[in-house]
Design brief:
Dehydroquinate synthase-like, alpha domain, Rossmann fold, alpha/beta, globular, 11 helices, single chain, 337 residues, 7-stranded mixed β-sheet
């Protein structure tokens, strides 16, 4: 099948870059390798069945499977492999995989030789609509997700929707949870669009937000809609929930908080429920987790600068709300039980 792609530009001045979206888009990788790069390191994982041709000399580095790859020890190992292979600032990284791979690849690129160029080839729905776009890179600590990282923009991003055809259902649903949030960030009825157009629409929304607030000093925080509770669930333990599924629960919880605060009416809550149901996403917290345990974890969230901070829907759209009343937080758990 001939690649038919849409190009969305993340306009950041001299650090602007294209995001290519479409079936077979990875075939255009060689044209996106930055000028002057003679060699690349392709970072991927063993279970990712999508080979790429960067058009220049390359080595391949395999990351551990799953979320375990997002650790400082893995970053050190990759950097040492790059150093052993003689990579310099003139070389580049190509990260091929889901959000784990592009997060690690971007972070390695940000710190190796104090910064080298990289291209993301995203192969999961979650990565294509969220993780690969915008320059947020990072790894986890035992104390929480993405607590060590950097803002480091890629040279290009490829969202090849052909790779979505082989995703297991649960992995696809992981990305759908992130798509659900875009419905409330101006996306409207995204669920009615074909997958290529849906991915492209999400990329455009994220690109617009990143262009307005690259380093999350203000409006970019709206991209964390549903993530405060989601990150608390993920930090609390290894439950049978993917990231996007946890985000879906967080979206329903955030809608309840906004409703109790008088920020949205019941019809808007119903629309949240409609979207989550249309995507067959979970909306209940694992029974093993207590409300108190989750509330204690809210303070670890990276947005919690001046008290418990939530991203909430409201009359002016989704925005950050600081210092949410703990009683409202406690009462709102009833909606996700």
């Amino acid at each position: 099948m001939v690649s038919v792609t849409t190009t969305i530009t993340v306009d950041l001045g001299d650090r602007s870059y294209p995001v290519l979206v479409g079936h077979g888009a990875r075939s255009e990788l060689s044209a996106l390798i930055p000028a002057g790069v003679k060699r690349v390191a392709v970072l991927t994982q063993a279970g990712i069945p999508w080979p790429v041709d960067p058009g220049v000399a390359s080595i391949q580095i395999e990351l551990p499977e799953g979320e375990a790859a997002k650790s400082l020890s893995v970053v050190e190992d990759v950097c040492r492999q790059l150093a052993g292979a003689g990579f310099t600032r003139a070389d580049a990284i190509v990260a091929v995989g889901g959000g784990v791979v592009t997060d690690v690849g971007g972070f390695v690129a940000s710190v190796y030789h104090r910064g080298i160029r990289f291209v993301s080839v995203s192969t999961t729905l979650l990565g294509q609509v969220d993780a690969a776009i915008g320059g947020k890179t990072g790894v986890n600590l035992p104390e929480g997700k993405n607590l060590v990282g950097a803002f480091w923009q890629p040279s290009a991003v490829i969202c090849d929707t052909e790779t979505l055809e082989t995703l297991p259902h649960r992995e696809f649903q992981c990305g759908v949870g992130e798509i659900a949030k875009y419905h409330f960030l101006g996306g409207g009825r995204l669920d009615e669009l074909p997958i290529d157009e849906r991915v492209g629409a999400c990329v455009q929304i994220k690109a617009d937000v990143v262009m307005a607030d690259e380093r999350e000093g203000g409006t970019r925080a709206i991209l964390n809609y549903g993530h405060t509770l989601a990150h608390a669930i993920e930090t609390a333990g290894a439950f049978d929930l993917r990231h996007g599924e946890a985000v879906a629960i967080g979206i329903r919880y955030a809608a309840e908080i906004a409703h109790l605060l008088g920020r949205i009416d019941n019809d808007r809550v119903v629309e949240h429920e409609r979207v989550l149901a249309a995507y067959e996403l979970p909306t209940t917290v694992p029974e093993e987790l207590t409300d108190t345990e989750l509330m204690n974890l809210f303070s670890r969230d990276k947005k919690a600068i001046d008290g418990v901070t939530f991203v909430l829907d409201g009359p002016n759209g989704v925005e950050t709300v600081v210092g949410v009343d703990p009683e409202v937080l406690a009462t709102s758990f009833a909606a996700v039980r």
